Structures are given as structure tokens and as C-alpha cells.
Design the sequence.
């Protein structure tokens, strides 16, 4: 496994094209009797940078300025009030890098400036509208249920859950959606986003779940729910101080790693002596990164995914005295820029509390402590074929579990057991994975077994790959369990196939499951984007320099972001990606052919497997309720591919 692959797998890196959007302002920012100035900041724990802005006005017209959010997440623009009358539904779309997703706010002429557009504002507006906001925005009609009054009521519902946190931060609920002094710097009001996650729960209502990233405790809210029936999530002044310090020190660690790579320093003191990540120990890690990326141009501000104490009886909101000298782990993501790509990674950091329990004495990079990669996150995977075969197609919604097969190690992970447990370690479901090729493993990650069998007797499931299907029953069990604390995945990886009685354990690791999945019954009822009749060129493309593909955008509830085209592993070129904006329904990929040996499938026959590209695929990426959606349209000469 190369270091770049390792970086992508073990740290959840997402290779991206460098974005080239504008700054934080438009050509005109002045207000007059015929224009309205909109301004604010977009943040999701870190500033949402270079994101596109779209506005739906009350007359059904869309305004899509060339303005994008600036390096601090700020924006300012002016629009004609006659052509685009208020009230307005504003959407911030991030298609690459950190904070991928769609974020919303609601504006009238009285609250158009100082907008704070975040996952929190999205939750508030969705609650007020009581609908899926991606669907509402696409419909061309600002929901009639939205008003200053309904938005205020929904804001108060969310504020009730955050009551303790707002009190210790000294933040009034009145500034949660509008605050001209807001800064996406990880402190003050912005710290709310590093402490809580906000997720819409279904496709028809604005129901939302608010979860603590520090305890896992969650609260579900529905529109018009009485404030007296809403439970607050506890928070203390001490927890605010500790998280502030952890974030600050994580950013220092990341800067230290960047400098070590750029200056070719092999043993920086910002890495723990016991550091280990995907087989790399402290003395190897920096050199391996340098060999891979060269030098870092920049490192973005970190955003916390979750933090946990090693002693599960402790939490950030217990008394300071009980936290004396306690240790724990935080998982935090950040964006990086190197010479030819931008990406987002997530590291694990070890923190130590001081002897009084009131401050953080140390934070260091710690790694995943494994020989290989491990990642778990919500995802919807759709697989569609264009070659006439009916195998390996379908829709799976749940958690994508990436368990690396450690191909470059003497001992491979050939199978694994995944136990999804609640905070009291009660089992919600157990699943099994193993390599598709058995002992001759060629995959970079394991694949889910068709049945919940400890021997995987029914074989692997090529429809779902490594996405664990989450039924309505399991989704509700997870949502219910989150009311008490973290839901975790206990991963046990083995060196043999599940059916091999001589197998031994390679590793056991328990990780919090960050995010609420979309239930399978919801995902199965969605309509997914796919190639239309003009897109059958994917079948017959024979290695030309360019390819134009047409597609339909599918269900309006899915927000599309990106299209990527790729060929088989022998094609000898890098895949190509295109951002999807507006209502675009076709994309053209240029400079596809790198050598004359590239030969693609045609209707009359198939090339030999050796030395030629024998399959190709188009990936349409997007989100539903800010859960990643990947629609993979592909063809192959062989029924068993994929």
C-alpha cells in the first residue's frame, strides 16, 4: 500500500480538485431601495470555505451568484429585490474538502445581514418548515410554513437542548442565526459546532437529532414540540475550557506535523512516543508523508468529530476533581493543501488533563494504533449497471465500514466481526465481513456478508460492498440508544476467513459511530440519479480523448455535488472529476487517454483482461440529509465484476 493510499484510507482522506472560487464578496455589496444586501458567515465547526451560494426567492426564482464563501467562511452579496423578493431560502453548498454538505438559512429584509449559516441554522429552518430542506429548495417554492415567528419558535426549541452550553458560553439564543460579530474560529459561539452535531432524520419532515460530540447523548426534536418536553444536554464551564484548550492544542499539533514534513524532521515532539497509524510508527510517519505529498502548502483549522475519556465513567461534564490526570482520545478533521490536491483528513489525538482537572496539560498525535486502516461513517451506496447484467446492482443505506486488508503486511485481515453496541454495551446488531476473493485477497477493504453468519456461509454481498444495511428497526434502535450516549462499533479483525477454525484475532478496536444513518426503507424509496438515454456512450466508449455523459438528476431530495469518471485498474491514468452545479445534466471529461493501449468495452466484444481496461464507471456524488450518497454507474465484460 502506497503512502498516498494509506493517507486516503487510514485518515479518511478525500482527494479533490483544487477549487478556484472567488473571495468573500460580490461586485456589489451596497444596499439601495431596489437592492438587498445579504451577508454572514458559514461554518460547520471550521469555516466553510469556497462554498457556492444559491438563493430561492418567494416568487420561485433562483439567484446563483459567482460569489463564494471566503477563507473565513464569510460572504456578502447584493440582489435585486424586485427580481428576487423576500422571504428568501439561502443555501450554502460545499462540494469538496471539509464540511461537504448543504446548509441553510432563512432571510427577510429585517434579518438579511450577519447571517450565521451552520448545521444549527439548518436544523432550525428544517424544524420551522417541517420538511426536508434539499427537497424544498429544489421544488422552487419557499415553504409557506416558514416565517420569522416559526423560525423563532424552532430556534427556541434547539436552544432548549443547548441551554447549559449557551449559559456557560455567555451566548444568547437570539444570536444563533444572526450575529454580525460571529467568527468561525472554534471559540465562543462557534464552539457549539465542535460540541454538538445536528442531523435531520427522515425525508419528509424537519425532525432533527442533536448529539453531543463529547458524551454521545442525543435529543430528538419535532416541530411544535413543547419546550417543557425537550430535554437539555448537560454542559459545564469546565468542559468548555477543556474543549477550547484541546482544539487549540490540536491545531498546534497539526502545524507541528506540517512543519515537520516541510522541514524533513523525523521525530517531532507533537507525536506521542507510542504513535502508530496504519502500521507507521513515530519514526516512520513524517518521512512517509513527505515521500507522498512533498510539502504542505497549508493546514486548516481542526473540527472535532468526537472526544472520549479512556475511562468510560468520566465525562467532560463531571467534576474537575474527578478528571485529574485523566487521559482520552479526540478524533478531529481538518483540510490540507499540497501542490496538486486538496483533501480532508481525520486524526486521533491523545489528550491529558492536568492534576487539578481544570486544564489540558498535553495533546499529541496518537494515530489509530493499528497495522491498517479503519473508518466507519454513514453512507448510501447505489450500484447501477449499463451492460445488461443484473448482478451486483442495488441500493444499500447504513454505515460504510472500511477495514483495510493490510495487503502489504505478512498477516492480512481476511475477515471481521462488527458489533454495534449502545452506551451500556448492549448489542444492537452483529455483522460479519470478509474478503471477496477469500485467501487470495485483492481488495483494499473487506466486504459485508450476505447473512449474519459467523462463517459467512452465504458468501459476500457484491451489491452492498462494505456498507452495513440499516433497517428501520435498527435505525430506531440506534436513535433510541443515542439518547443515553455513544453508539459504538466494536471491530474484531481476523487473519483468516470466518469459516477457518484456525483463525486468530489480528486486532480489536471500539470506535464511536459518528452520525445517524438513513434507514434502508427510506433509501429504497428515493429515486437516484442515473445515465439517461443520451448517456449510453458509457457502453460503447472506446478510449477516445473525451467523453460526454448525460444523466438525470434523480430525486429532488438528493443534492448532487460531483461526477467522477474512471476506468479499470489497468487503464494507466488518474480518474477525472467534475463539479455539478445548478441544474446541469451532462458532463464532459477531457484528456482521458494516456496511452494507445487503452481499450474499452464495446457492444461486439470484450478486450482481454491482461493489459487493458475492461471496465469503467461513473460516480455521481451527493448527499441526502447530509449523509454521503454515491451512485456508481458501471459496465463490464464480466458478470462477476464489482
Sequence:
Amino acid at each position: 500500500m502506497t503512502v498516498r493510499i494509506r493517507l486516503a484510507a487510514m485518515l479518511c482522506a478525500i482527494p479533490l480538485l483544487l477549487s478556484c472560487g472567488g473571495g468573500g464578496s460580490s461586485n456589489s455589496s451596497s444596499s439601495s431601495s431596489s437592492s438587498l444586501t445579504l451577508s454572514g458567515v458559514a461554518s460547520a465547526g471550521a469555516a466553510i470555505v469556497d462554498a457556492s451560494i444559491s438563493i430561492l426567492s418567494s416568487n420561485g426564482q433562483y439567484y446563483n451568484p459567482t460569489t463564494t464563501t471566503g477563507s473565513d467562511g464569510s460572504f456578502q452579496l447584493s440582489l435585486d429585490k424586485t427580481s428576487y423578493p423576500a422571504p428568501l431560502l439561502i443555501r450554502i453548498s460545499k462540494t469538496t474538502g471539509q464540511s461537504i454538505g448543504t446548509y441553510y438559512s432563512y432571510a427577510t429584509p429585517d434579518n438579511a445581514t450577519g447571517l450565521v449559516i451552520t448545521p444549527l441554522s439548518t436544523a432550525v429552518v428544517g424544524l420551522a418548515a417541517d420538511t426536508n430542506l434539499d427537497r424544498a429548495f429544489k421544488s422552487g417554492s419557499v415553504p409557506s410554513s416558514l416565517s420569522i415567528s416559526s423560525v423563532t419558535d424552532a430556534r427556541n426549541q434547539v436552544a432548549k437542548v443547548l441551554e447549559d452550553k449557551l449559559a456557560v458560553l455567555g451566548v444568547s439564543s437570539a444570536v444563533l442565526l444572526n450575529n454580525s460579530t460571529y467568527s468561525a474560529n472554534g471559540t465562543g459561539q462557534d464552539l457549539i459546532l465542535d460540541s454538538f452535531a445536528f442531523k435531520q432524520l427522515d425525508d419528509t419532515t424537519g425532525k432533527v437529532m442533536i448529539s453531543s460530540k463529547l458524551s454521545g447523548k442525543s435529543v430528538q426534536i419535532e416541530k411544535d414540540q413543547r419546550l417543557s418536553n425537550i430535554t437539555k444536554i448537560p454542559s459545564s464551564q469546565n468542559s468548555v475550557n477543556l474543549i477550547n484548550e484541546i482544539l487549540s492544542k490540536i491545531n498546534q499539533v497539526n502545524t507541528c506535523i506540517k512543519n515537520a514534513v516541510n522541514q524533513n524532521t523525523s521525530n517531532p515532539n507533537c507525536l506521542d512516543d507510542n504513535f502508530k497509524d496504519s502500521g507507521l510508527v513515530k519514526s516512520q510517519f513524517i518521512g512517509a508523508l513527505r515521500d507522498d505529498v512533498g510539502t504542505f502548502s497549508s493546514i486548516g483549522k481542526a473540527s472535532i468529530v468526537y472526544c472520549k475519556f479512556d475511562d468510560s465513567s468520566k465525562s467532560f461534564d463531571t467534576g474537575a476533581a474527578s478528571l485529574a490526570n485523566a487521559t482520552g482520545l479526540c478524533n478531529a478533521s481538518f483540510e490540507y493543501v499540497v501542490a496538486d490536491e486538496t483533501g480532508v483528513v481525520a486524526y486521533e489525538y491523545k489528550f491529558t488533563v492536568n492534576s487539578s482537572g481544570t486544564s489540558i496539560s498535553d495533546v499529541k498525535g496518537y494515530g489509530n494504533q493499528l497495522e491498517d486502516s479503519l473508518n466507519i461513517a454513514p453512507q448510501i451506496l447505489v450500484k447501477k449497471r449499463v451492460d445488461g447484467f443484473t448482478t451486483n446492482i442495488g441500493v444499500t443505506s447504513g454505515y460504510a465500514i472500511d477495514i483495510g486488508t493490510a495487503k502489504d503486511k505478512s498477516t492480512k485481515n481476511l475477515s471481521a466481526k462488527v458489533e454495534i453496541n449502545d452506551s451500556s454495551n448492549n448489542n444492537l446488531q452483529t455483522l460479519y465481513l470478509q474478503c471477496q476473493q477469500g485467501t487470495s485477497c485483492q481488495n483494499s477493504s473487506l466486504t459485508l456478508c450476505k447473512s449474519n453468519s459467523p462463517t459467512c456461509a452465504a458468501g459476500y454481498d457484491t451489491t452492498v460492498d462494505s456498507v452495513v444495511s440499516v433497517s428501520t428497526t435498527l435505525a430506531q434502535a440506534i436513535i433510541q440508544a443515542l439518547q443515553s450516549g455513544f453508539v459504538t462499533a466494536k471491530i474484531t479483525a481476523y487473519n483468516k476467513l470466518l469459516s477457518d477454525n484456525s483463525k486468530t484475532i489480528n486486532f480489536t478496536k471500539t470506535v464511536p459511530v459518528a452520525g445517524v444513518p438513513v434507514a434502508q426503507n427510506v433509501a429504497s424509496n428515493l429515486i437516484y440519479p442515473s445515465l439517461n438515454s443520451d448517456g449510453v456512450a458509457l457502453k460503447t466508449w472506446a478510449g477516445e480523448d473525451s467523453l460526454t455523459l448525460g444523466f438525470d438528476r434523480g430525486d429532488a431530495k438528493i443534492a448532487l455535488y460531483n461526477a467522477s469518471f474512471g476506468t479499470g485498474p489497468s487503464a494507466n491514468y488518474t480518474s477525472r472529476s467534475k463539479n455539478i452545479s445548478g441544474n446541469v445534466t451532462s458532463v464532459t471529461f477531457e484528456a482521458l487517454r494516456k496511452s494507445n493501449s487503452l481499450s474499452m468495452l464495446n457492444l461486439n466484444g470484450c478486450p482481454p483482461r491482461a493489459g487493458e481496461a475492461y471496465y469503467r464507471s461513473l460516480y455521481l456524488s451527493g448527499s441526502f440529509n447530509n449523509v454521503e450518497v454515491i451512485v456508481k454507474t458501471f459496465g463490464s465484460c464480466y458478470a462477476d465484476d464489482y
